[in-house]
Amino acid sequence: MPKIFHYTPEQVAELEKYYRKSPDAKTSRRVQIVMLRSQGLDLKQVASVTHCGTATVTRLCKNYRERGIDGLITTRHTSHYRYMTFEEETEFLEEFREKAALGQLVTAKEMHLAYQERIGRTTTASGFHYLLRRHDWRKVMPRPHHPKQADSETIVSAKKLTPKFKL
Predict the structure, then answer these.
(1) What is the pTM for the complete model shown?
(2) E strands within 76-125?
(3) Cα 85–101–136 angle (5° rounding)?
(4) What range(s) does the Winged helix-turn helix domain occupy (predicted)?
(5) What is the pLDDT of residues 59-93, one digit of tens each?
(6) Which domain holds residue 16?
(7) How far is the C-alpha of 128 from the C-alpha of 6, rounded, in Å?
């Protein structure tokens, strides 16, 4: 026989209130699942109405009973995890921006090592390059040329001396 949990009128009122003012559709759906369960619908009915699995319904109801409305807001998955806030990243990059403004050479490798030292752990180079892109940093290099290349006057005069062949 399945366990039936009874929700207090205060809990039902809290769910209805948060359902109306939930910030996004995902949270609203989670609150709706628990609300339907609190209204007496069984597990399979709630799952079919909300188009989710019975395990999801069970997990969300358990999270609500254990942690309240916060159990429905927080997710199991944390995407876009960053070691610093945007402001901290800006402050970190400002040191290198000042170095670059003084004419010193600033490399991404040097910055990445300083970043790892600051946060106290290793990170991937691609993750660090994403941080740089997020703050509009880009690779700026002088136009490549050979170190022993002749000056432009010599090149122009050499062009005038070459005979032009007509076919």
Answers:
(1) 0.48
(2) none
(3) 40
(4) 104-153
(5) 999 989 898 888 888 766 555 677 888 899 999 99
(6) 9-73
(7) 49
